[in-house]
Amino acid sequence: MLFSTLISTTQQLRPLGPHTILFLDYPLYGCSKFSFLKTNYSFLCRPGDGMKGFFELLYEEPIKLMILGASCSVVSQPVAETSKHWNLVQMSFSSASDVLSLRNRFPYFFRTNPAESGVNTPRIAILKEFGWERVAIIHDNSEVFTSATNKFLEDLAKNNITLVAKESFTAGEKPTVQLQSMKNKDARIIIASAQEEGYQQMFCEAYHVGLYGKRYVWIINSYNSVDWWKNVTWLGCTEEEMHKVVDNYIGAVVLGSRTDRNKTVSGLTASGYEDAYIAYTQGVPYSGVEYGSFGYDAVWAVALALHRVVQQLEAENATLKIEDFDYSNTNRLRDRFVKTLSELVFEGITGLVLFDLSGNRISPYKIEQLIDGVEETVGFYLHDRPFGLQWMRETKFVFTGGIVPRDGPSREVVYLGIEPSTFIAFASLAVIGMIMTVVFLIFNVSCRNRKVVKLSCPKVNNVIAIGCFMCYTDVILSGLDGNLVSKTAMNSLCLARVWILPISFTLAFGGLFAKTWRVHVIFGNRTAKRTRIFDYHLFMIIGVLVVVDIAIMSVWTACDPVQLIQTTLPDLHDVDGDKIIVRILDKCDSPNSPSFLWSGIMFGWKGLLLVYGAFLAWESRKVTMVHLNDSKFIAIAIYNVAIPSIIIAPLVHLLDIEQPSITFTLSASCITFGTTITNCLIFLPKIIALWHVKDEQPEQRLFTIYSSQNQVAPLQTGMSRKPDLTLLREKETEIVELKQQLQQQLTENGDLLEKIRILQQGPQPCSSGT
Asked: Any bridge partners for residue 167, and if so which?
């Protein structure tokens, strides 16, 4: 067939005249020689035989202008690498190795068939068409498929497609291990490259491994023979078993013949070429028939190139002719041949023929699929189309299961934020607490001159109320996350939280600490000398604590400010739902500091303060003076702040960070509980006391003094508005008895007597010293 093509081509290009001499090396699956005068076919791809034929024809007269062939890449490579030293341009029609695209090694090599990597382009287009972004590759490790696969890896990276696995196997060996590895990596879309026997081994083992079904898609080079997957019982698979694997595979193969009815440069249509071929071969199925049309276009490419060089020389009125070519390239005709072929564009039987910078043919591809055991053409990939793919079917492909398989488990992005119900619950409690604090603050300011309020240092109580209000505010701010505010706002919130909580804690707890220190100093002083403590002493203590907080926070913010850090946690696999749960967590942290460094410093400082405050409260636990001071309630408040804080604060940081709702619940509960207890213990007793003494006369005084050993009952003086003689006599008797008990107690305990004497001289307000 090729011989007849050559004859018909040279007959049509009459301007070439008698000077056209071609050297055609045509080793069809082997190494044979083909020239104008003789043809000899051999069906073995042997580089040695190819080189032998090359040198035999090289040293035969006349001088050869170009080389046509070889068909096998393993023959074309040594011939092309050698023939360049004789300045011979080589044209192949079936050598597919990507190594031949290396222009530095094969500067004068061209081919009318695409390189093996040419199929990568339609494969990428198919992957994009169906949104497949995870693929696996398995290939025969021969040089042709290895070089094409390496190029495919580059194409995948350029198109942001993830390679799940890459495996190779040797022809003749079962790729069991490789396929099992791909299955373990959950490969769903599998790109396979091999010769026919390699595909048979691959798909048989895929059945045994279980790489088939509605989750999997196989994409192969579909140049195999018809029913290649049948009759493979020698591999250990029945036809039914093989069909389960190959069913609905997707194939891509270079388009061997154009699909339209347009006439080509030869004057033939594609159907006319087919008729001529059948007439010439008399229907005999010659080996390599799928490359016949590429051979036809290769002959035309060579003839057209030589013809145009002849025309160029004639147009230049040059005395130089193409028969003046020699192997030393004395007249630089080789350069004209290469340039002409590089610029050549014509309509061939295989479609539009043109070459890229590497001498490769830019060829269209046919997209096929095995449907119900029959390989059907479902579309084409055309380089000159806007989107490349042109579909023959409305449904494009047929997929097992009726739906497009996914390239892997679906990825569900889950933001790990605080549960809305949890936030609403604690935010509501915080708002109630804020309202309650404002009410207490108003009460404290408006009743600051009443005895019950005045004796408990109302100015310090105001500071405690402000600290409690800020604590409630921090609960609300801590519950805001990416579900509710923007990322920019979250950065500001992170910094605000770091500052608000320590200072609010210091204001609230520092006020309790100062008042406890006051009681401890007064009742811990066992000398007769009176200790006087004023309000500014207490504010100095609170101020020092706040200054320490500000110093720590300023250094922290200056060195490594807290900011929003979005962390992606390890994926969770939902096997039943066939999905991967991607968990994203927002965290406020200092990115450039060791974990817990700054928070550890702050916790350490607050921990020392809590421990010392708890110690003072324990020391003053036996001193309770109703109305004169609220030391007992202060002690209870300190215990309720210190103990939960010491337990929960480390627990929150040690708990699994994947549960933000739990950590928020613990921290918010601790803050809300401690703040509410402090509020109620500081202000409620005063409100209740004022309620009980709202009808009290100015001259009335009520003192209740408790000690660790004895209890002195209330002492009441003054007259009621409605005197009762019987009741008055009973009270006078009680007064006498109580005086006797008091005298006895004063005698037994001189220290207590001195303190009672001080109290009997009249109560001293906090502002004037005690």
From this structure: 138
